[in-house]
Amino acid sequence: MTTTDCIHCDELSAAIEAAHEHALRELTEGSDLQAVSWLAAHLAAVEGVVDGLLRAHSIATPGELRERRNVHRRLQRELRVFEQALAGDALAAHVGVAACRDRVIGSLAEHAVDEHALLERLGRAIGAEASALAAARYRDALANGPTRPHPHLPSGLPVIGAVVRRAARARDHVLDVFDGRHNPLPRQRKPHGEPGRWGHYLLGMPQHRDGAGE
């Protein structure tokens, strides 16, 4: 399914469908390493945001959630092997880059089909306003997610998972700097508040009092 087909989807579904398309474009005509980073962040974001909503609204059965975690974990493992093959790691010397890419594309397709069906049910259950809020949370999680695959991180434990994902993101950021690796995740500007009286003074900015000049 493409973003064009998703015009009438809820906002959360549209955001995630767009992420799938972006990852596929990177895998087929862009940068393999950027595809790895993007998918690692996407999987962490959907686990932190979407899976919590699926549980809270009883959209997915325990069996469906368990199978979903299995698909995610397999994709994380394949991303890790792909990353090793791209880096020329001896642990992945027996695996070709093209074969790794094909496996990731196949698992991404399975992940996307599974996710699309669940998101349709979720969108109908929570409505447009809640979907827009969830989409904002997803985009924030994507922008601040890990940039490398972590197949051994705990899943299905919301509080522990959130803490571990933050730790993984901090670790990945350090490694990206050391490796000179480009971070393809969207950057979100932090809002800057208006400086107070002391801020104006230190910045040499004029302060206007109510009624001044009257």
Q: How many beta-strand runs?
A: 0
Oligomer: single chain
> How helix-rich are the residues, as a percent range?
55-70%
The global form is globular
Rounded to an integer in angstroms, the radius of gyration calculated over CA atoms is 21 Å
Q: Give the mean pLDDT.
A: 79
Distance between the termini: 63 Å
> Helix segment count?
7
Estimate nothing, just give the exact number of structural domains.
1
The H-and-E topology, N to C, reads as HHHHHHH
Q: Kindly estimate the percentage of residues that lie in beta strands according to DSSP.
A: under 5%
Unreliably modeled segments: 1-5, 210-214
Major sheet details: none
Class by alpha and beta content: mainly alpha
Summarize the structure in words.
The protein has 214 residues and is mainly α. It has one domain (4-203). It is built from seven helices and no strands. Helix 1 runs antiparallel to helix 2 (32-48) and helix 4 crosses helix 5. The chain is globular and about 50 Å long. The relative contact order is 0.15.
Features:
mainly alpha; disordered N terminus; globular
Short description:
The chain is mainly α and 214 residues long.
Write the layout of secondary structure elements.
Blueprint (H helix, E strand, L loop, with lengths): L10 H19 L2 H17 L1 H7 L5 H25 L10 H47 L14 H22 L17 H7 L11
Helix pairs in contact: 1-2, 1-5, 2-4, 2-5, 4-5
